[in-house]
Design goal:
Elements (H helix, E strand, L loop, with lengths): L1 H17 L5 H8 L5 H22 L12 H18 L3 H9 L3 H28 L8 H5 L3 H25 L5 H17 L13 H10 L5 H30 L10 H7 L3 H22 L3 H10 L3 H21 L2
Helix pairs in contact: 1-9, 1-11, 2-4, 3-8, 3-9, 3-14, 4-6, 4-13, 4-15, 5-6, 5-11, 6-10, 6-13, 10-11, 14-15
């Protein structure tokens, strides 16, 4: 199982790296609406994945893994997560890939994320009341059953998301189609991971941060660590594979560079090394704290949950993108 999880992580890293969806310039470009590659790939992946996953679950080859709609955590966590993503320029999963490529600001983001994950473990008993209420695991399947109406809505929604990706492509006036192949690749990878014959779970990344941080600090004698220990261990192996993909592919393509300051950061924020270190650390802390409030991140909520047409994940996506765009407008003046 270790080898299979590691292999899936390697594929994840390779797919994102192919279209450069892991890079700071791409993700921060989304925050300023100058690069829509991430949004296009995610929209296409959700659309295609929703249809494929629905078919596999109907055939009994995969299972639902819906995240509960914990209203406060989803909304507040989504906004905080989006703000962290705008400042940092990475997602929890892309940090590992970009570190493999030599991006040292990703390393400071990871350190900030580990501290953010540990802080969430410590703060959880105090902030638990603002995370609720828990409205349960709500999805198209639970709302509409598995009959004609359900399949009509699945196909309609899937087609809408895929059409949205092409509309964004037209609006951006870009000829680069790598996002499309990466989006399709992400959908297929998610389907493989969901299969009962493989790992029977969704792709995720952010749980690994509090898991590793709690292990390093010995903060393991609590109910939260018991809850995250299994998925956190899985995601740690998965991200190790993603890191190796970033390293090997960048070395093969002769693109490996030790870098702190990326071109878009220099354009907006200057070339101060200390400034980038402080902001990437802060962004990483905010990113993971927000992700843990919401119970997931870009891969675990928006992609995995979106493909299941989970109300919690689709709502998280809305607030995460809102936090990303509002913060991007204010931060990158």
């Amino acid at each position: 199982m270790f080898v299979l999880i590691f292999f899936f992580g390697f594929l994840f890293g390779a797919i994102l790296q192919y279209a450069r969806l892991n890079r700071y310039d791409t993700i921060s470009g989304m925050a300023t609406l100058e690069d829509l590659s991430v949004a296009k790939a995610i929209a296409f992946a959700i659309g295609l994945g929703a249809i494929l996953l629905g078919i596999l679950i109907a055939l009994g080859l995969a299972s639902w893994h819906i995240k509960p709609f914990v209203a406060g955590g989803i909304i507040l966590g989504g906004l905080i997560f989006g703000a962290g993503m705008a400042i940092l320029g990475y997602c929890p999963g892309t940090l590992a890939i970009s570190l493999g490529e030599g991006s040292l600001d990703a390393l400071t983001g990871i350190i900030g994320g580990l501290l953010g994950g540990w802080a969430f473990t410590l703060a959880l008993p105090a902030i638990q009341p603002i995370l609720g209420p828990d409205l349960g695991k709500i999805s198209f399947s639970s709302l509409f059953g598995n009959g004609f109406l359900y399949w009509f809505l699945v196909i309609l929604t899937g087609a809408f998301f895929m059409a949205l990706s092409f509309w964004l492509q037209k609006a951006e006036k870009s000829k680069n189609m790598r996002w499309l192949y990466s989006g399709a690749g992400l959908a297929l990878l998610e389907v493989l991971v969901f299969l009962k014959a493989t790992t029977n779970r969704p792709v995720g990344a952010s749980t690994s941060y509090p898991y590793v941080a709690d292990l390093l600090t010995g903060t393991t004698g609590n109910a939260y660590f018991d809850k995250i220990s299994k998925p956190g261990h899985w995601e740690m192996i998965f991200l190790a594979g993603a890191f190796l993909a970033g390293l090997i592919i960048s070395l093969v393509k002769k693109e490996f560079r030790l870098t702190f300051i990326h071109s878009r950061w220099e354009k907006y924020k200057g070339s101060s090394l200390l400034k980038r270190i402080l902001w990437s650390f802060t962004g990483g802390f905010i990113l993971i704290f927000g992700a843990r409030m919401a119970g997931g991140c870009t891969s675990g909520h928006i992609l995995s949950g979106g493909m299941q047409l989970a109300v919690s994940s689709l709502t998280f996506a809305i607030f995460a993108f809102a936090g990303l765009l509002v913060t991007g407008k204010a931060f990158y003046k």
